[in-house]
Write a structure and sequence with these properties.
CATH topology of the largest domain: TIM Barrel
Radius of gyration: 17 Å
Bound molecules: iron/sulfur cluster
Largest sheet: 9 strands, mixed
Number of helices: 6
Structural class: alpha/beta
Strand order of the largest sheet: 3-1-2-4-5-6-9-10-11
Number of strands: 11
CATH class of the largest domain: Alpha Beta
CATH superfamily of the largest domain: Aldolase class I
Shape: globular
Length: 224
């Protein structure tokens, strides 16, 4: 498999491009912007170790190289006031193009929200709203600790690992109102089965609860 896990080495400021998997419109299905219509820009490439449960494996592979200005115009033409930039790991492309896209989108008056795993350092210059979803695999968190000060909020998809998430929140000194907890499950019925327990956990710990609307309503269907 083509290795998409290394940070791109150059800063192509004269003619910046982005490696894009897809651009589409939908509704943000989870987290603090849940329920809002949005344009989604999914950037290609992720950071090892890759998550076996990943539901966007198609973003691990190379996408289409598109000039930043073209991406910005496409997003603008979709008519949403919110754009979610996701991946893969979007911040892999910060220096090579993403910082230019963020500047263009903000100039156009859009709200920029990022989805990041926090496996690499979140750029301090980014003015977007950073939602970080730390990953635990191979018995440890794969997470850059400085991101606890750089992300705006954190979200965790959980099943029985509530104590592990609570430990992370405590170790990182995260305020409860920066944390969103969501039920695991590729099927709506799985989410519904877990939700009462997670609801009670959130009430007790003062965490935010979020469903994952796209899988709750459409199961594991792609393209919604
Ligand atoms: S960090 Fe996200 S996009 Fe990357 S492999 Fe894990 S789940 Fe998939």
């Amino acid at each position: 498999m083509f290795d998409r896990t290394r940070e791109r080495p150059h800063d192509n400021t004269l003619d910046p491009t982005l490696d894009v998997t897809e651009i589409f419109t939908s509704i943000q299905g989870e987290g603090p912007f849940m329920g809002r219509p949005a344009a989604f820009v999914r950037l290609s490439g992720c950071v090892k170790p890759l998550c076996p449960w990943c539901d966007t494996k198609h973003a691990w592979e190379p996408g289409e190289s598109i000039p930043v200005a073209t991406v910005a115009d496409k997003v603008s033409s979709l008519g949403n006031d919110l754009v979610v930039i996701t991946g893969g790991e979007p911040f892999l492309q910060w220096a090579s193009g993403l910082k230019h896209l963020e500047a263009l989108l903000i100039k156009k008056g859009l709200t920029v929200q990022y989805e990041t795993s926090g496996k690499i350092l979140i750029p301090s210059e980014s003015k977007g709203f950073k939602v970080c979803s730390p990953k635990h695999l191979d018995d440890r968190w794969h997470y850059v600790q400085e991101n606890s000060l750089r992300a705006d909020c954190f979200k965790f998809v959980v099943k029985a690992d509530l104590a592990r998430v609570e430990g992370f929140v405590k170790d990182q000194g995260l305020a409860a109102n920066r944390v969103w907890i969501m039920p695991l499950g590729d099927l709506g019925e799985d989410q519904l089965a877990l939700s009462p327990g997670i609801w009670a956990f959130c009430v007790k710990k003062r965490f935010n609860f979020s469903p994952r609307l796209h899988t709750l309503f459409f199961n594991n269907q792609q393209g919604v």
